[in-house]
Write a structure and sequence with these properties.
This protein is an alpha+beta fold. The chain has a single domain, classed as 2-Layer Sandwich (Alpha-Beta Plaits), CATH 3.30.70.100. It is built from three helices and four strands. The chain has helices at 15-31, 60-69, 71-78; strands at 2-9, 36-43, 50-57, 87-92. Strands 2-3-1-4 form a four-stranded antiparallel sheet. Strand 2 and strand 3 (50-57) form a beta hairpin.
Length: 107
């Protein structure tokens, strides 16, 4: 499995609007993507304008396809709410209780 972590810094007072847009507009697009497994949105408890989006994919290839074909359009839907461009980091999942993956056994 493969994970993308996208760090977003939203404009002051726009956290609720941002997360609502993710829930209503972005997650439905993600659900239609080949290899998409899960999405989590984390809002900092100390800085409401710092938000992380964590998406899980069956493979690196699935995540990269999404990034090439859909990510620019996704960012376009939320960029007016952001202070700066999102920062994307990618990770290979080595272990997950939720997805029943043991270290070294990821697809």
């Amino acid at each position: 499995m493969f994970t993308r972590i996208v760090e977003c810094n939203v404009k002051p007072g726009k956290s609720e609007e941002f997360t609502r847009k993710i829930d209503q507009e972005i997650i439905p697009i993600l659900k239609d993507q080949q290899g998409f497994v899960d999405e989590s949105i984390l809002v900092s408890t100390t800085d409401k304008e710092q938000i992380f989006s964590i998406s899980t994919w069956n493979s690196r290839e699935d995540a990269e396809r999404y990034h090439r074909e859909h990510y620019p359009r996704i960012v376009g839907r939320v960029e007016s709410l952001l202070i700066s461009p999102p920062k994307v980091q990618t990770f290979e999942v080595r272990s997950s209780v939720t997805h029943k993956i043991a270290a070294g056994k990821a697809a």
